[in-house]
Amino acid sequence: MVKIRVHSRDDIIKAYLRELGYGADIDISKLLASYESLNQQDDISKSFDDIIYNKAKKVFSKDLSKMQLVALYKALFIEGKNAEKYGIDALLPDFDKSDEYFKKSAFFIVPYYKVSVIPTQKIEPIALHK
């Protein structure tokens, strides 16, 4: 079992960033300056999900739920190695260099299924051998 000791808000932010592919020594000062919600909010994970959601809304279809948009954005962010390519700038509000990658990615959302009643069918026995 792994123990994680949380000392401060910065530890929580860095843990969230590690999930996205950033290293432990990432400088988060630009992120804190750009998003006041990270400085004020008690639930930092929710605040980060809101940040990701707002970035994802600019790129993906509007008919997806918030959870789907956040998950899709995170998956493509990690797959595209945006943390390595662009550093912390990739999460800033005005950053859009990676948007084209997201738009061109071959991810498709499966439509909701529809359950319906199948009408009764008559089954005719067939003779396989004469």
Protein described:
With 130 residues, the protein is mostly helical. It has one domain (9-104). It is 48% helix and 0% strand. The chain is built from seven helices and no strands. The protein has helices spanning 9-19, 29-34, 37-40, 44-59, 66-79, 82-86, 99-104. The longest helix is centred in the middle third of the chain and has 16 residues, at 44-59. The protein is elongated. The model has no long low-confidence stretch (mean pLDDT 81).
Rg value: 23 Å
Average of per-residue pLDDT values: 81
List the uncertain runs: none
**Number of distinct helices:** 7
Percent helix: 40-55%
Percent strand: under 5%
Number of strands: 0
Head-to-tail CA distance between termini: 68 Å
Q: Write down the secondary-structure element order.
A: HHHHHHH
How is the main sheet built? none
- The outline comes out as elongated
Structural class: mainly alpha
Taken together, the total number of domains comes to 1
Which key features would you list for this structure?
mainly alpha, 130 residues, single chain, elongated
Describe how the helices and strands are arranged.
Layout: H1 9-19, H2 29-34, H3 37-40, H4 44-59, H5 66-79, H6 82-86, H7 99-104
Helix pairs in contact: 4-5
Précis, in short:
The chain has 130 residues and is mainly alpha-helical. Helix content is 48%, strand content 0%.
